[in-house]
Amino acid sequence: xxxxxxxxxxxxxxxxxxxxxxxxxxxxxxxxxxxxxxxxxxxxxxxxxxxxxxxxxxxxxxxxxxxxxxxxxxxxxxxxxxxxxxxxxxxxxxxxxxxxxxxxxxxxxxxxxxxxxxxxxxxxxxxxxxxxxxxxxxxxxxxxxxxxxxxxxxxxxxxxxxxxxxxxxxxxxxxxxxxxxxxxxxxxxxxxxxxxxxxxxxxxxxxxxxxxxxxxxxxxxxxxxxxxxxxxxxxxxxxxxxxxxxxxxxxxxxxxxxxxxxxxxxxxxxxxxxxxxxxxxxxxxxxxxxxxxxxxxxxxxxxxxxxxxxxxxxxxxxxxxxxxxxxxxxxxxxxxxx
Length: 338
Fold this sequence. Notes:
Elements: H1 3-16, E1 21-22, H2 23-30, H3 34-46, E2 51-54, E3 60-63, H4 76-91, H5 101-112, H6 115-127, E4 128-130, H7 147-159, E5 163-168, E6 174-187, E7 190-197, E8 202-207, E9 211-216, H8 229-238, E10 244-251, H9 254-259, E11 267-270, E12 284-291, H10 297-303, E13 308-312, H11 314-332
Parallel strand pairs: 4-6
Antiparallel strand pairs: 1-3, 2-3, 5-6, 5-9, 6-7, 7-8, 10-12, 10-13, 11-12
Helix pairs in contact: 1-3, 2-3, 4-5, 6-7
């Protein structure tokens, strides 16, 4: 596309974002002088785009209220936000049951995207895994990574290429890292990439919002067969060091117990027969958690609706006893008579 035409369309995109734009501001955004901005505004008027000129010291240009210009023009960030929003809405069950509307909307947006951006978004959507099952709204506070980081990592995952990036750890340490990424995972409002770190000679998981300057490197690698990125992220989070180490035995199979716990907080292992407090009580599972606080665990244990035994720490046993007493006291209370 010739540069003057591209700048005229960029001017239209800036005006469509709303509000009054001054001529100096537009000249700076377009990289031209103020006289050229006025000429570009005249080109839009020739195309019957209702550009309004506001005179005065703080004057400039704006679009007439209610005007929308087809085709819709989206930046890389905007296109990514729309497509991910549609995908998240489908997974969380927020779309109407007659529900192909979100799929057709995504397809329409995808068709009008530039080929370069379309390929990168396809790589992202094709390499993304979720820890929560469909129909579950993601818990936690969303932490968005840079668009360039997200798309570059997705490219590397899709095409089995190494990726280099700068990383800021939780304690503030800054390092230069290289990763053979196996998978991209969305969990609890955050984005993670997991794979092999050649320098550490082991698997590592990184948060994308702590990454910067991601770039895909030359070369390729073969990811291991049967690798589950979502499961790897969950087990890594559950095994991370924390203030308290908790071990609880719960009656039930590992699959049943795991389904009753929030994803990513525990490592669940089914015990051999007879390992429970009563050999005749059926299957039991061991639950290991690493947490910074214990005060929220009594409610989680109560929600399991299963017999359990606290192996450690004794502090948790006292908290569960106190929680049970409060619940029993509340259950005995009667509402005041009218």
